[in-house]
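Example record

One chain of 190 residues, shown exactly as stored in the release files.
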Amino acid sequence: MNQVDTAVARRRSHRARWVAGAVLVITAGLVAVLATRPPASVAEVQSPLVGKTAPPVAGTTLSGTSYRLPARPGHYVVVNFFASWCEPCQQEGPSLAQFAYEHGRIGDASMLSVVFEDTDSAARSYQSMLGATWPTLADPGGKLALSFGVRAPPSTFVIAPDGRVVAYVIAPVTASDLDGIITQAKATRA
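Predicted structure tokens for this chain:
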């Protein structure tokens, strides 16, 4: 190898080290950003109901009793539209049961389910298998779903103690997601 070839090889080697170093720095920065970022949570969606008084919620439960959600419930209420045939609903079901149990003991929030385009018997069987102890409303004709603007399950609304809708989620939610929504609502006095 002559001197010119050696000089060219050194420059290429030097350039390759700089490129590798730059890639390493960028990769390390990206890893640092992703590692220190808060975990992703469920995304709330826009609804004309958010910030407004929730539509009236009343009907017959799957156990045959009458139910009416007070206009001002005095605690947070999670209203979850579900169907037994809905796989994302089945995914979130155990977490909703956990949420209902934990908050039922504290008394700061409660669950209410509404059947969405499903038979009462299938919904009853699903809720029984889930261990749901909270009220589950039948929705013949989809009147409640229509009043909330629900198009598909799962759809979840969080209602504040004063009766205003503070969140709307159209994906499976976890107990942690709901806790975060309620914590944020409390912080903003919603």
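Notes: Helices lie at 3-36, 87-106, 120-130, 143-148, 175-187.
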